Amino acid sequence: EKPENPVTTHFEFGGVLGAPFMLLTLPLTTYALYFLCPNAAHCSVLELPPLPSLSSLFSVEALGVFVAWFALQVLLYNVLPGDVGEGLPIKRLGDKRLKYKFNGLNALYASLVLYLAVVYLGLLPVVFVYDQFVPLLSAAILFSFALSVYLYARSFRPAALLAEGGNSGHPIYDFFIGRELNPRIGAFDLKYFCELRPGLIGWMLINFSLAVKQYTLHGSLTNSMMLVCAFQGWYVYDALLSEPAILSTMDIVQDGFGFMLAFGDLAWVPFVYSLQARYLVDNPVNLSWPHFFAVIAVQALGYTIFRGANGQKDAFRRNPSDPALAHLKTLQTKRGTALLVSGWWGYARHINYLGDLLMGLAWCLPTGFGTPLTYFYFIYFAILLIHRDRRDDHNCAHKYGEDWEKYKKLVPYRILPYVY
């Protein structure tokens, strides 16, 4: 049955002109972050690095490793046991709920065991990721483009449910933003899979490889590297531990699956988010004990806010009548749904973003203050979350009408209570 697919009238990210700009600049940014700081001898935003040779950007071996890694994650998703749950109801499909398998932690454990086995058997050196970082990045970018072409082509099937923001009729824009909401091959949901598996688990293994490289170069691990790997490793573990919570996020509920998410999941997350660990390989930093514990405090505060707020939101969306949530105040809307106006969500409309930002800052602080490059993640993420907050505000104003204005009076702050 052909679903109702409204034509997109509101454009994001600069619209028709912004999409090709983003398609070009996002991959270039990932390369720039590497070549502006490839080693200890050269790490400055004030000096332009020499142009790399084409041969240094690509290798068949790296492409093969990346494709094999993606295929392994597909296999693990399909063969490992896991609970099956349902996503949020999709109104344009008569409140149908799609089913998802939750076996992310099992995939993480299996990946770690297989990675160690590959290294032990000598099939790949443990420092392969560091030595082949740029070719692996290129492989991820090429794979993201290829996957996006497939996703765009399949979105023209008559039965495809399109994202409300990705059906503009402008090919490049729709290719970038994503046309189809939940592209599936049978029960295998491509968007859900890519959100949590190849890039996220890969990020943890990249950091592990970089830590080993630091040890082989300097004979020891710095406490700064330990913190970065521990914080980011816990972030990955926690995301997979709370796997069902992703089903209520904007990426799953609202955004189509196109280049924006495919590139973000497969290339941006593992190769940009590992910037701090890569920097510390060649620029070891040993933190003083006050600095060390101060960074842990920032991380702990951020995680408390992030997990507490997201857990509360997900529980409420899944079962608003849960007795454990009876103490929370809500605003009943004319759509028949309720909005939280107390608990974590009484402090700010996106209080979870504050937790995310504090954790992001804690990942950067262990690198010291030798270069602003290692703080790229925090700066970029602040811009991204502020933009995402604005997107959500626009969508909710359209969705709830005057009820949204009432809600904003009850919860006046966006991200940072009493400030913004």
Describe this structure in words.
- The protein has 420 residues and is mainly α.
- Helix content is 59%, strand content 4%.
- It has 17 helices and six strands.
- The strands form three sheets. The protein has a two-stranded antiparallel ribbon with strand order 1-2.
- Strand 5 and strand 6 form a beta hairpin.
- Helix 6 runs antiparallel to helix 12.
- It is globular.
- The mean pLDDT is 92.
List keywords for this structure.
single chain; 420 residues; mainly alpha; two-stranded antiparallel sheet; 17 helices
Mean pLDDT score: 92
Helix content: 55-70%
Biggest pleated-sheet summary: 2 strands, antiparallel
Order of helices and strands: HHHEEHHHHEEHHHHHHHEEHHH
Global morphology:
globular
Per DSSP, what share of the residues sits in E-state strands of 2 or more residues? under 5%
Give the beta-strand count. Answer: 6
Instruction: Count every helix, treating DSSP H or I runs of 4 or more residues as helices.
Output: 17
The helix/strand class is mainly alpha
Distance between the termini: 45 Å
Low-confidence blocks of residues: none
Give, in spatial order, the strands making up the sheet with the most strands: 1-2
Q: Rg, please?
A: 22 Å
